[in-house]
Amino acid sequence: MPTCNRTESARGDMSSEELNEKRPDEQPSAQPTAQLKSNGPVDGKLPQDEKPSANDGSQKQAEPQDEKPKEEKKGPAGGFDSTPLPREPPGYTVKITFHRATNLPMADVNTLASDPYILATIDTGLTPRHKEDPPLTLRTPTIRRNCDPEWNCEWIVANVPASGFKLKARIYDEDPADHDDRLGNAHIHVDSLSEDWQGIKEQGYKIMKRTGSKRAYFVRAIAACFSKAKHLNGNLYVSVECLGRTQDEEGGGRAYTIGPGFWYKHYSPMLGRLANVKDAQDDDDTNAAGQQEQKQRAQRYNFQANQIQLEGPVPSDLYHRYVEFKPFVKGMFTSTGPRGFLLSKALHHQHARVYNFSRTTEYGVFNHNDPTPTSEVTTKFLDLVHYDKGGRIFTYVITLDALWRFTETGKEFGVDLLSKHTMHSD
After folding, report:
1. Which end of the chain is more exposed for a tag (fewer CB within 10 A), N or C?
2. Is 267 in a helix, a strand, or coil?
3. pLDDT digits (tens, 9 = 90+) for 334-382
């Protein structure tokens, strides 16, 4: 989107220059005036010793007015931002492991279970380049129909300062048909880090019920009365290990994820039908028998969205901010004002629909023990973009934490609307 805005701005400048070239008598420019003085006689009508006339003075007075279009050439605020990273000493690399949770509430009345996942946020206390920069987050895969789930999901974060960090783990119940119910929060505070720090070994943290779904805890209370549940208090078991100093050439001004890499493939049949997008396998060239079989079965509509967690850090030269090509853009990204609040909510809702988590969502983890995992990541990327099924165009963004998001785009209005950079950035 920033590139498009710059293009529109460049076109606007080109139009103003062409207008000045077509009507030089209305607004003389500085360049013709300079040539007139230096070249002397033009067609023999002006003698060399003739003094400047009043027209020359008017032309001199017009010179300062020519500087105004130069100011108009500036594009809208935003886009590439050269704000440097805050200077901080290198921090430590920390590995966080979410092992399991116990005694979670039952969010699904029919199955008397939940589909839990963790949305973790880490606060390192480092000063961001801009206050709108989001914190580091991690979403674990979903465990189906289980109130005592086991994730054993790792998260390796670099440049965590010696002053420690605050980790907030929100536990949700996945519900694609409705909003996800929160099952509770767990907080982990580490006051200081050093190479001699002993770490945390699978320690249990109480899940705070105050922010959880009242309906889920009510169902669990009823189940406890009938001996379907033993306890109402849940715990989240977490381990934290310090892996040593972070080797970062740009210093410790920012924290970022370095592994393990993972990928998600999201499907949305509803958006696929609205945008008239079918499964990639429906477009394959098959033999006569295969074509006959393909005609007999119903076509499947699916809109596919993809995510790949790359190894950080993202180069600081790629830092971009929203482009204020319209007055409402800043309010939409900062949620300021009634209109900005509503637009921000709509933007987040569209992002959640495109990157929808459900039972059809595919998930995988790259082998982080492989010293050269580039071949595995490349193969998976080619698979996600259907490289052997004809030419395709994708719109993508890379977040500040090296999360690569991309969807297929096209000339159709529905597909183009679902593939905006603003939607991908969330």
Report:
1. C
2. strand
3. 788 888 888 888 888 888 888 889 898 999 998 866 655 678 888 899 9
